[in-house]
Inverse folding.
């Protein structure tokens, strides 16, 4: 499952602390990598972090048969099953640490952060509590995959934190979620598609407190092996002051002779990020959406959507050209980066038009049921997605209203009653048919009003005046 991963890990006490409360766990065969940063003092933090990583590892070891089935593409094992398994393992670790805390007065209140990465097949799964972090380095791009459960980040997320007041905040490193502090804990868990050559960096806040930007992290590890990158990052933290324990785990996926896999993932990510449905999503959120999308190739003439059928998917064109048809009439042509079928995300109703591939086309399909899972699992992501959908629909309604208004004005500018009444009166007054040599351009038909035809024109002319 994970025996080809390149790996190096190191933990260091730092320059200030007397003992190390961090722990890590690495299992290539299982594809499991964990970093935990304990808290509690008097060695209790070290106990909490060690107990947490061991508990997660034991829980997954018991289910390695299921993980192997997923790696072997067993259709009965879904990505959701693996993600839920990892989240449950972290929840079990929380119960173990909390129970130990309650049973030993010297360890009362101990806890730990925990960030776990599970690599199985082509998927990466993350479970996270606290402010340790997981980053991904894909090519030259670095993205933070986890969100800190900390006071500072919560203020920043709500837009209530200005950079100039950051240094004035007391206890700014306080975390809002931890393993073992309470009987239950909310675990952030999600999954996404991994690519050949991806590199993952797991670290405690002893490192990332000194990292100002993702680009800075990328520059520190660029061109280095996993071992050299790990050593460089630990040394960097100590050079900056080493105010806390420092733990770094660097995992690299093997490079393969299939560069199109990475190119396709990047292209899919960029295409989704440009759509109004997914604006404002964090990289980890967008990668989660990409993971639920299904890529399908359609040949020329293949029907993607059939008019009148009930559909429940949004389609995004990665490459190729698709024609939108209403009956036998083509009403639009769509190309790469464009989408169709979005109304199915709102209601299950018959499709209003057909869509046919005009040439070989690669499409991403996002099913309504899968997207709703994302909405339910993450409150913040759900709010963003629902707001984006509402915004798109409001814009469409506004555009439709504008078009209807313009059409109404165009109809009002033409008086069609003359033509209508001419047709009617020709049947009873044949002389209304003008001779062939009648100068038709003298008085346009459309300018003749109903009153002119029936003798009720200008009142001043009723008596010949």
């Amino acid at each position: 499952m994970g025996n080809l991963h390149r790996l190096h890990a190191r933990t260091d006490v730092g320059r200030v602390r007397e003992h190390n409360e961090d722990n890590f766990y690495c299992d290539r065969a299982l594809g499991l990598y964990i970093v935990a940063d304990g808290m509690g003092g008097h060695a209790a933090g070290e106990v909490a972090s060690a107990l947490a990583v061991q508990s997660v590892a034991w829980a997954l070891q018991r289910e390695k048969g299921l993980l192997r089935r997923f790696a072997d593409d067993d259709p009965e094992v879904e990505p959701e099953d693996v993600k839920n398994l990892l989240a449950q393992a972290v929840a079990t670790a929380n119960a173990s640490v909390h129970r130990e805390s309650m049973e030993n007065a010297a360890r009362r209140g101990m806890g730990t952060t925990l960030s776990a990465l599970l690599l199985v097949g082509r998927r990466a799964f993350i479970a996270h509590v606290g402010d340790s972090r997981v980053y991904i380095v894909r090519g030259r791009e670095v993205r933070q995959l986890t969100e800190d459960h900390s006071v500072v980040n919560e203020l920043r997320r709500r837009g209530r934190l200005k950079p100039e007041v950051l240094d004035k905040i007391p206890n700014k490193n306080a975390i809002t979620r931890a393993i073992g502090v309470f009987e239950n804990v909310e675990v952030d868990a999600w999954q996404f598609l991994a690519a050949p050559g991806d590199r993952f960096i797991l670290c405690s806040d002893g490192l990332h407190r000194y990292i100002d930007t993702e680009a800075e992290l990328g520059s520190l590890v660029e061109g280095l092996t996993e071992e050299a990158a790990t050593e460089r990052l630990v040394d960097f933290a100590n050079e900056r002051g080493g105010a806390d324990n420092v733990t770094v785990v660097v995992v690299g996926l093997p490079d393969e002779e299939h560069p199109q896999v990475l190119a396709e993932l990047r292209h899919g990510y960029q295409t989704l990020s440009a759509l109004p449905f997914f604006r404002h999503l964090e990289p980890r959120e967008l990668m989660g959406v990409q993971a639920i999308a299904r890529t399908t190739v359609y040949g020329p003439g293949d029907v993607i959507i059939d008019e009148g059928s009930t559909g429940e998917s949004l389609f995004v064109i990665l490459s190729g050209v698709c024609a939108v048809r209403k009956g036998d009439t083509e009403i639009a042509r769509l190309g790469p980066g464009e989408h169709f079928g979005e109304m199915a995300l709102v209601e299950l109703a018959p499709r209003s038009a057909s869509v046919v591939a005009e040439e070989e086309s690669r499409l991403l399909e996002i099913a309504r049921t899968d997207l709703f899972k994302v909405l339910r699992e993450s409150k913040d992501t759900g709010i963003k997605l629902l707001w984006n959908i509402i915004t798109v629909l409001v814009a469409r309604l506004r555009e439709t209203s504008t078009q209807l208004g313009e059409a109404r004005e165009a109809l009002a500018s033409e008086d069609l009653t003359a033509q209508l009444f001419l047709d009617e009166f020709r049947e009873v007054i044949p002389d209304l048919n003008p001779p062939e040599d009648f100068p038709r351009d003298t008085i346009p038909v459309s300018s003749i009003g109903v009153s002119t035809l029936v003798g009720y024109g200008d009142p001043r002319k009723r008596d010949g005046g």
